[in-house]
Design goal:
The complex is a heterodimer of chains A (112) and B (113).
Chain A (H helix, E strand, L loop, with lengths): L3 E4 L2 E5 L4 E7 L4 E9 L6 E6 L5 E4 L2 E6 L4 E6 L8 E9 L6 E2 L3 E6 L1
Parallel strand pairs in A: 2-11
Antiparallel strand pairs in A: 1-3, 3-8, 4-5, 4-9, 6-7, 7-8, 9-10, 9-11
Chain B lengths: L3 E4 L2 E4 L5 E7 L5 E7 L6 E7 L2 E4 L7 E4 L5 E6 L8 E9 L3 E6 L3 E5 L1
Parallel strand pairs in B: 2-11
Antiparallel strand pairs in B: 1-3, 3-8, 4-5, 4-9, 5-6, 7-8, 9-10, 9-11
Classes of the chains: A mainly beta (112), B mainly beta (113).
């Protein structure tokens, strides 16, 4: 019940295209859903996060869409750039807890 | 400015030889975490400190220990490293109740020979 399932495992997108990464969860106690970006040899860095009281959050080219009834959330990267090539992790945290549960990661490659 | 600092960045140790990894933070956050990340996998939480309160994950092997002598520093001790412990070790911090974001350090890559 603590799992967060992430897909796809890898994604290749052309420059300027839209990258979409999906995550699904079972635990209804989750109330915080961040996305992290990780470049090779670096630690993950927070990209954007959402709480279940909103269905969408946008920051620049990055948008989280959240579907509470389906227990799914997704990251959309608009106008994808080669510099966006990285591994993306979704995560979730249950109310009253500190630990994050991470998805398995998506390796994004944006081709020039 | 570095906020979560990990030393060393690369560590080579021998099978069974104890090793200590270091993490320091300039954020004055009250929670510090240690994650293990193996190649192409998600970070896996080993344990965390909330102030001086140590919280171990149920599946963290006894071989892994941690110390937090003060707010700024946290150490990961691997008592008898095995080949399976080769991984990237990530330290993260956040301020419970104020800042939900976990800030990660750059990691220490551990190689066990």
């Amino acid at each position: 019940q603590q799992q967060v399932k992430q897909s796809p495992q890898s994604l290749i997108v052309q420059k300027g295209g839209i990258s979409i990464i999906n995550c699904a969860y079972e635990n209804t106690a989750f109330d915080y859903f961040p996305w992290y970006q990780q470049f090779p040899g670096k630690g993950p860095a927070l990209l954007i996060a959402i709480r279940p009281d909103v269905s969408e959050k946008k920051e620049g080219r990055f948008t989280i869409s959240f579907n509470k009834s389906a227990k799914q959330f997704s990251l959309h990267i608009m106008d994808s750039q080669p510099g966006d090539s990285a591994t993306y992790f979704c995560a979730a945290r249950a109310a009253g807890r500190r630990a994050l549960t991470f998805g398995s990661g998506t390796r994004l490659q944006v081709q020039p | 400015d570095a906020m979560v600092i990990q030393n060393p960045r690369y560590q080579v140790t021998q099978f069974g030889k104890p090793v200590t990894l270091s993490c320091s933070q300039t954020l004055n956050h009250n929670v510090m975490y240690w994650y293990q990340q193996k190649s192409s996998q998600a970070p896996k939480l080993l344990f965390h400190y909330y102030d001086k309160d140590f919280n171990n994950e149920a599946d963290t092997p006894d071989n892994f220990q941690s110390r937090r002598p003060n707010t700024s520093f946290c150490f990961l001790d691997i008592r008898s490293p095995g080949l399976g412990d080769a991984a990237m070790y990530l330290c993260a911090t956040n301020q419970q109740g104020i800042e939900e974001t976990q800030y990660f350090g750059p990691g220490t890559r551990l190689l066990v020979l």
